Amino acid sequence: MSGAFGRGVAPVEVGPDTLVLGVETSCDETAAALVLGGTDVVSSVVSSQIDLHAAFGGVVPEVASRAHLESLNPVVERALADAGVGPERVDAVACTVGPGLIGALLVGVSAAKALSLAWEVPFIGVNHLEAHLYSSFLDHGDVGFPLVVLLVSGGHTMLIEMRGHGDYRLLGRTIDDAAGEAFDKVARFLDLGYPGGPAIDAAAELGDPEYVAFPRAMMNDGLDMSFSGLKTAVTNYVRRNPDVASADVAASFRAAVVDVLVAKTRRAAAEVDAAGIVLGGGVAANALLRTEMTAAGAADGRVVLLPSREMCTDNAAMIAWAALERHHQNTSDSDDFEFAPRPRWPLDGKAAAPPGRGVRA
Ligand code: ADP
Ligand code: MG
Fold it and tell me: Distances in Å between the alpha carbon of 68 and those of 49, 128, 354?
């Protein structure tokens, strides 16, 4: 590795011993992690707010901001303690600056900037989506370009062509609900609990995936996707057939989502002749998606990179890691105190987005 963090005061040369603190507060996880330049995750602490939001069946932004405020300092202290180091060992502070909930982002970004000022080390703003994408490389290393990335989470569902570090092109995305959102809504409807993804995944293992032939929307229609009709089809079916077993509905729903995700990803990979396929985001933890995508890759002769399940959902190791990868790119304008949180920050418009469009932290 070569290059340096920080523009202006005290840039830090990046090497295998560079220790980066990652901070993540974009949604409902308060997370801190320490990652070494040589790619080792030294510590990773995630404090989930799932219990706080479960009663509402989804994330309540105001509740999320307050919980981040309470949890962040203890989570950072715990990450340092787990790593057995003091603040003086930290070379840079990386933090998610977007996209995400503005109130939640403000808590993390303000804290990360304060730490970086107090410790006199560079601050690095990280795009949350880019970090999800890099979480696969944490486990697998580089496999060459171009890659097709399927990013599937509670807030996003998109197919991206990664032509190199920092070089992204949006190929397709959901035109309505994100896949994770569909899992959460269907699980809430079936009374399976929150978050819905893991609950449906577990229930589906006991059901028949062919019990109901739910629609696979836009299957032969480019690379965009749609999941809101599927959600409606599930609720309509259950209302008409109240005695149906939840496991069969869960299995049939999961099969429909996975069919669409795998078919679209396969088509995207063929179109750009991808060297490999990368999964990222919470839904990438889905058991059926993992096996089906791996089988499709094997059939098409493409490598499929799956992040470990802990790295699929929000965490701060991926934030620190994305920051460490960034010195390869040298395209960023975000390692600067002036860089404000960005509730919206599309990956492919990353370098082009005007600085300061967000809210000052
Ligand atoms: P976001 O940051 O957009 O909220 P995350 O990357 O934290 O999303 O992922 C959370 C989402 O992933 C939730 O919608 C959750 O239901 C979904 N999810 C988690 N595990 C699974 C799984 N095993 N199967 C399907 N969806 C899952
Ligand atoms: Mg996420």
Answer: 9, 16, 27
> Is the whole-model pTM more than 0.85?
yes
Hey, do 4-133+313-349 and 144-312 end up sharing a CATH topology, with the first three levels equal? Answer: yes
| pLDDT per position as a tens digit, 173-232 | 999 999 999 999 999 999 998 889 999 999 999 999 999 999 999 999 899 999 999 999
Q: Which among 313, 314, 315, 319 is the best mutation to test ligand 1's pocket, defined by most ligand atoms within 8 Å of the CB?
A: 313
Within the chain, residue ranges assigned H as helices are 50-54, 61-83, 102-119, 128-140, 179-189, 196-204, 228-240, 246-271, 287-300, 309-312, 317-326
Q: For a ligand 1 pocket test, name from 53, 60, 183 the mutation site with the most ligand atoms within 8 angstroms of its C-beta.
A: 183
Domain definitions of the chain by residue range: 4-133+313-349, 144-312
Query: Does the beta carbon of 280 lie inside 6 Å of ligand 1?
Result: no
Instruction: Kindly report the protein residue whose alpha carbon is nearest to atom 21 of ligand 1.
Output: 197
β-partners of residue 305 are: 278
Q: What is the mean pLDDT of residues 103-108?
A: 96
**CB of residue 155 inside a 6 A radius of ligand 1:** yes
The pLDDT assigned to 194 comes to: 82
CATH number of 4-133+313-349: 3.30.420.40
Q: How far is the CA of 180 from the centre of ligand 1 (A)?
A: 5
Instruction: Look up residue 354 and give its amino acid.
Output: P
Q: Which CATH architecture has domain 144-312?
A: 2-Layer Sandwich (3.30)
**CB-side neighbour CA atoms (13 Å) of 249:** 26
Give the model confidence (pLDDT) of 75-87 as tens digits.
999 999 999 999 9
Look at ligand 1, atom 25, and give the residue with the nearest C-alpha.
197
Confidence grade of residue 349 (pLDDT, cut at 50, 70, 90): low
Helices 228-240/246-271 angle, 10° precision: 160
From the CA of 27, the nearest ligand is 1
